[in-house]
């Protein structure tokens, strides 16, 4: 009887140990989400980007993928991005929520493909705004920097979406406080320089004292008004219809029948 109890205890202990090992491995599981087929990134840059992506996945349950390629295989940039996402089974949850950032060197294109809840989190406005953030780095050949900016903006967008206010035309995306601080310092400096310049020029001028009345500037008896008349010629009122800014996200269907949002451009 004692032997059977020892065996049972041993089995339970082994089972508990296996469960603990499985939980530890599951908690430390890391997804490989950077596919640098165009070889634009160093190994350390890939590792850094992959770590950032895994942080987003674990924190927000949004899948994020970065892909670089030298060829679109005859597809448009949007078709390539959508198909890459669908065919490789990316996405979190029942809706397959996530987004893919594609850099194509074939014609120097970049594209963001969204799926599931990411379509609502990344509106048409948001995609356009994101493009402004990453395009300059890509144009300068700083591909790692462009991808880092993409991840930073992605986290900001997901946070806003989770708070119930995704960035859109009526809720514009704001740059970092550091950016505004730099702009404010530059503005103050410009105003200061301009003010000093004006004061220096004014100090060198020898202006006559201004007169209180305009008539003081007219020579006595040199101006005589013989006739005056007011004529109203015509008036024209032009009305221009203000275009209403579209909100939300436009979508399309990929070759596999999945619904995607997104957008891109050249660099």
UniProtKB/TrEMBL annotation:
Cleavable signal peptide: 1-26
Record region (Disordered): 241-267
Transmembrane spans: 179-201
Keyword Glycosyltransferase: no
InterPro entries reported in the protein's UniProt record: TPM_dom
The keyword Transmembrane belongs to this UniProt entry's keyword annotation: yes
Residue span(s) of domain TPM: 34-153
Keyword list, A-Z: Membrane, Signal, Transmembrane, Transmembrane helix
Pfam family, one: TPM_phosphatase
Name under which the protein is recorded: TPM domain-containing protein
């Amino acid at each position: 009887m004692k032997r059977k109890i020892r065996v049972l205890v041993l089995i339970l202990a082994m089972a508990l140990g296996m469960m603990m090992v499985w939980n530890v491995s599951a908690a430390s599981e890391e997804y490989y989400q950077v596919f640098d087929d165009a070889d634009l990134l160093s190994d350390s840059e890939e590792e850094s980007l992959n770590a950032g992506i895994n942080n987003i996945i674990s924190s927000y349950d949004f899948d994020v993928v970065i892909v670089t390629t030298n060829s679109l295989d005859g597809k448009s940039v949007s078709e390539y991005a959508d198909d890459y996402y669908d065919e490789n089974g990316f996405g979190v949850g029942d809706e397959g929520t996530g987004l893919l950032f594609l850099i194509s060197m074939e014609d120097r294109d970049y594209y963001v493909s969204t799926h599931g809840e990411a379509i609502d989190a990344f509106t048409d406005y948001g995609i356009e705004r994101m493009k402004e953030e990453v395009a300059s780095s890509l144009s300068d050949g700083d591909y790692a920097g462009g991808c880092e900016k993409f991840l930073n903006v992605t986290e900001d967008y997901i946070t806003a979406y989770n708070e119930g206010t995704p960035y859109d035309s009526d809720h514009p995306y704001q740059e970092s406080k550091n950016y505004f601080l730099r702009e404010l310092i530059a503005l103050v400096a410009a105003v200061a320089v301009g003010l000093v310049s004006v004061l220096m020029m004014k100090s060198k001028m020898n202006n006559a004292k201004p007169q209180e009345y305009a008539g003081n500037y007219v020579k006595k008896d040199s101006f005589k008004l013989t006739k005056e008349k007011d004529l109203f010629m015509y008036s024209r009122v032009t009305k221009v219809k203000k275009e209403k800014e579209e909100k939300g996200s436009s979508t399309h269907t990929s070759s596999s029948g999945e619904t995607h949002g997104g957008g891109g451009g050249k660099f």
